[in-house]
User: Fold these one by one.
Assistant:
Number 1:
Amino acid sequence: MTNPTRDNIASATAPMRGRRVPAGPAAAWRALALAALLAPAAAAAQSQTPQDAGAWRYGLSVYGYFPSLSGAASTPTSAGGPTIDVNADKIIDALKFTFMASFDANNGRYGLFTDLMYLDLGESKQGTRDFTINRAPISGSTSADLDWDLKGTLWTLAGYYRVPTDQRFTLDVLGGARMFNLKPKLGWNINGELDGIASTSRSGQASQSETLWDAVVGAKGRVALDSAQRWSMPYYVDVGTGQSRLTWQAALGVSYAFSWGELAGMWRYISYDMKSGSMVQDLSFNGPMVGATFRW
């Protein structure tokens, strides 16, 4: 009978951390480089023959994700007119709805996994001064009513190879793609003195729908925390580019195994650096997750 904590890995997005996850492209590349260095080191430390491919094993994970949002939106107030620029994290503090699930299949050496997340975040602020016009500060008598909404679907699909290691540590080197379909919407009503913007542009609404595809590479696995391998620490990191300048994510958590699967508490960080032309320039999700994985 297989041991669920040894033969299966945690969801690609499951983590809990004891310290702040670094937020930046350079940190993502360093994390990926560390994962790449771990692979040959783990193989060299292997004292047993590589694990042979066997029967396929499967895992289905369902999580609740409770992230905060950080990012910036910019859109013209009219055709050829000045732009209104908003920091989403100063406007949005409400999570309307989120759903996340992942599925994993492996035969001990090779595997496939997919991860799907849907987010709906939004908030309205009345009389706020948390915006700029053409990136310039506004006058003291100016404020705005802002309505910021973001819906998004992230889908990751990847294959992986399990590097031979000892029984208390797994390391999967992965490659695949991530799709991000996002639909930002910004509504505004500007009040007070404001030079350079026509009265017809002081109220308006702008929305956009775009789908980004990026190739990703990374690593995932788990480290057993006790001799019975009931407690373990799943981890995940990837980095990619394509239709976005850079996307990366990192995850770390703690899980406890049962005969049917496991329960986990995690922390997940996802970052996107968009190319020019997008209504949203930079976007990140950062927060805890809790959920269950069912294995068979």
Number 2:
Amino acid sequence: MSGYDVVVVGGSPIGAAAARHAASTGASVLLIEKGDGTGEPVRCAGIVSPHALEALGASTSSVLREICGGRLYAPGGRAIELHADTTKAVVIDRGVLTRELISAATAAGVVVRIHTQAVAARKGLITIENGRAREEVAVKVIIGADGPKSAIASWFSLSGPKRFLVAEQVVIAAEGRVGDGVEIFFGKDFAPGFFAWAIPAEEGRLRVGLAATPGSDISILLARLLREQFPGKVLTRIGGLIPIGPAETTVADGALLLGDAAGQVKPTSGGGLYTGGVCARIAGQVAGDSAIGNAISSAASAGAVDLEALSVYERRWQEEIGDELKFGHAARLLFSALTNEEIDRLFAAIDVPETLGMIAQNGDIDYPSRLIDSVLTQKKIRTRLLSAIGGWSRAQDLIRIAFASEGETPI
């Protein structure tokens, strides 16, 4: 029977980054990926902040475009333009990013096995399969970076994320309508509970998609968006789930969850590469240190690492991004509770040059709370926004409606 200090399940950019960080501690690391390691087919809108690449330890080789602004649409049709003086986001080739980070993991000493999947796991042992060949591998820490419906979570009796959005995206043969800017569409007619988007990517290619609450017929919604706004030839189509709330706990005896498997995704945008990169660094360091006995609270290095030692991971990632995820979750719930008419009035309230300039310059897709703080400290803006939704009484109603929706049945 072979053995490793750390086994990472899932060769996404986040899984590869975690494996590299674990190897940097001196731990022996195996990364398994059920696909071919190319990152294809891509299941990602591919727009991230420049901070995301830094968090993942990646170069800019995957960057296709820099984004400094775009156009936002209210349900009633009002469009507002946002333009910043600095790069606010980059559009990436997710496949290139995946391949770069897997190569970096290999260079760090990680053993990478593609076309390999986990078929069973328990504390101290994981069973993997390549084709028809099965192998049992002794392991001290398993990192589950295996997506929103994580098998590792199930095998270790971890609940994983409870709430999801359903998403679908196509790539069409078309150029962006606002140059290198993105287009975002709000309202229940476009995407109930979230938003739709159009992102310029490779030359002559536009990524158009949407995410919505479960039960929404996203195929019909996307077909209508394409027909009315973007009638280009559809080249590729993808779909999937986006977790929008962290798991109750991300650690167990001998295992921890990472990325989509842990629900470490920004609820306001559905993006997970920045948050996943932050957590991958922590996961790799804690798993590696605990497995080889570097950690003060580590279990004996002879066996699987226990819950107490791995709890350091949960505490550290919560300290770094937990508050921002909680803010994002609350903001998404509140926005989902707005009517189309209220969204229209909010657009009208911010459609003032001074306010739009503040939003463009202070907006940060990784830390939306900073923008909200800067906006709400301005009394005139705060008053206009409150008036747009009908005053403080309506605001209190929205809070009650939003958080009552927490009782919805997860899919």
Number 3:
Amino acid sequence: MYQRALFQTVRERLIEPRRFIQVFAGPRQVGKTTLVTQVMQELPFPSHYATADGLVPTGHIWINEQWDIARVKQFQNPSTDFLLIFDEIQKIDNWSELVKTQWDADSLNGIPIKVLLSGSSRLLLKQGLSESLTGRFEMIYASHWSFSEMRSAFGIDINQYVWFGGYPGSAGIMDQEVRWKQYISDSIIETSISKDILMLTRIEKPALLRRLFELGCAYSGQVFSFNKILGQLVTAGNTTTLSHYLDLLSQAGLITGLEKFSNNQARQRSSSPKFQVLNTALIAAQRHETFNDIKNQSAHWGWLVESAVGAHLANHILTERITVNYWRERNDEVDFVVQKNDKVIGLEVSSGETHKRTGMEAFQKRFQPYRVLLIGKTGIPLNEFLSFNPGDLF
């Protein structure tokens, strides 16, 4: 079975002496449970796995029961470490306080139970961690699968990746496109919105959140002011609500909003967002065209290529400590601006033979970036760029 590079990170953290609770977060259907299972099988000590997915059990009783099972198992093997895994832990009310109590009790009593928490809602995990577990945890983030991972595991080519995206569970049904679209819509989109956002967060206008997601996919790569978005929505709302909903969709691994690059942080934060899907499968699943149809439509295909590049960059924001923005000034525009520490790189995406360079020239003159790069036929080939780790560009 294919192992992601992240496998080694998780395994090494768990083999280390017991220091911190390990928190493993990421979108739905990116293989978190599979990876955890792989790690469990290769650890030199026993473990216990428990999931809160499905019917949510009574919080404090369930967590305490699972912890006591782990203690009994560890007592039977007192000479070794022991791993306790809680999957989808954010679905338990007051989970962080309960985990803190049990973790501190083991620390006080010298019980060497290591703990790994995993979940699909990074926002809710972070809220719980900041409330009760400050100083007791480390975060490991599982992003959407990259092109190089999907190619290595399933043999897909660059065009397939641009359209079908990076959900490993759907790779086996890509040749049945109607079925594939239904799977993405039902098993990923609807489940992420209904279970990871609506069931776990107070949402006053769920129809507005769903419509925002649809617009974000339909207009990925385009800059939209929140006031302009409100003008397209039947459901009333305000810009603060939309900004909050976009953040929730981002934390669930669906779509995000890129800020405009500026040397002025206040102006950057007040800028209109550029919609960006975090997996191009979310676009394809909602369109009526098929893969064979759309790859022959140059304008639409170029838009998908740009969305694939943006998704690749955005999915490395947490792991590589980079920021991803766009830049626009009057008629000049740069598709993506990537920054790490004090180094800035401008990226332009082209799917044709020729490309206007005025935006990049204006950006270079104004900001003197570390690098400017063109992605496409006359620059870095798309398949090569999507195989890079963006952090290595610096």
Number 4:
Amino acid sequence: MRGCLPDGPTGPATGSRRDRTGRWPGFTAGALDAGVRAVFAFPLRMGGIRLGVLDLYRERAGGLTDEQLAEALSFADAATAVLLHLQSLDPDAGGPLGSIHVVEDRAEVHQATGMVSVQAGVQLAQALALLQARAYATGRPISALARDVLTGVARFSNDD
């Protein structure tokens, strides 16, 4: 979750700028030219499902304080919630499919995703896609469908 340019996590680099580019010379050279001295990457995920990454850049080398790290993790959680919420929008109606509270429903959706994964015999990312597809196809919020999966009202199979 942390990285510094040109200084690495173990301390300042020495030598010419070319020597300090390390693992990603093309990226590092451009980032340094843009004034970036530290890069931090935070995964956007729901349980085992990876949705993306939140990258933060800073003009000063060095790590994050505990407060900055906590705030960055909160931003990553918020970005995850926004991504999940945006995926629940009905493009034809221009609004959400019912009342959805992603932050509160995340645990139920995560648990239902695991159950769908077992029922349908698919990976977690595919199980979440199946949940989203059925919620969209039936015009229901994913949280309501997740509750139905958890209570056994809705089931998925290998044919879904």
